[in-house]
Amino acid sequence: RFSYIFFIVFFSVILFFDSKNNVFSSLRLIQASIVITSDLLVNQTKNFFSSVYVTQTENQKMTKEARELKDKYEALLAKNFFMESNAPSIESQSMRSNLAYAKIVNFNAYKYICCGVHEMLISKEAPLFRPVLNASGLIGQLIERQGNLGKLLLLSSSKHFLPVLIGSSYCNASGKGIPMTISCSTDVSEINETIFTGQLVYTSGLGGIFPKGLKVGDVKEITLVGDTAEIVIELAADPRISPNVYIIEEA
Q1: By CB count within 10 A, which of 65, 84, 187, 201 is most buried?
Q2: Mean of the pLDDT values across residues 81-95?
Q3: Contacts of the segment 138-144: beta carbons below 8 A, 24+ positions apart
Q4: What sign does the CA torsion over 8, 14, 15, 17 have?
Q5: 3-class DSSP state for residue 88?
Q6: What tens digit of pLDDT does each residue of 24-57 get?
Q7: What is the C-alpha separation between 3 and 149, in angstroms, rounded?
Q8: Could you tell me the pTM of the whole model?
Q9: Which whole-number Å values give the CA distances from 241 to 104, 109, 184, 244, in the listed order?
């Protein structure tokens, strides 16, 4: 009981002196400043993380919108390529816009550079042998189904053959196993008359797979071997520019 009375008297004296002389005012100010500083830090931290979250969300939204716009733009380029190339050849207005969208899901870029067979897997099971475009033009055709995927053989593959028209001359071009390069052979008499370096090359429509009039590329080099001329063609379309591809479906 004595200690209880002592502490009451002791703290009463301290409070009396503090009220008269502000003995502990500096300590109270320090405490108050600590509390205010803590509140400010907490609020600033909350505001910072809230700002970071909002910024990330906005960036993700803008990235998604930019990707969607890019996809739409590439689809328009592919459709425009198809329509412009085939306007003189295709009477059916409905077939001009009959392009089915797909996405590249597997592409070995190393094999594309080093090896002869150039292939891709795309995210669509479509009829076999249909031609395939991307935003830059014709890149190949479907040759096989693998589950719900399609295997695409590129024009540059050593296993691919494509009937082409150069000037007024027809020839069966094959891939050279070199990126964006195919070649075909013709009689040497055709050279300098209807075939020359820089001349545009189109699909001939022979064989019934590729519509007539699709731009393939241009003549890059002509090599004479006896009575035969080997014509090297640089392809117009690069299959590496985008994951988006478009299958030319039958009307």
Answers
A1: 201
A2: 51
A3: 138/203, 138/210, 138/214, 138/215, 138/216, 138/235, 138/236, 138/237, 139/237, 139/239, 139/245, 140/239, 141/209, 141/210, 142/247
A4: positive
A5: coil
A6: 455 454 455 555 566 666 666 767 667 666 677 7
A7: 88
A8: 0.69
A9: 11, 12, 25, 9
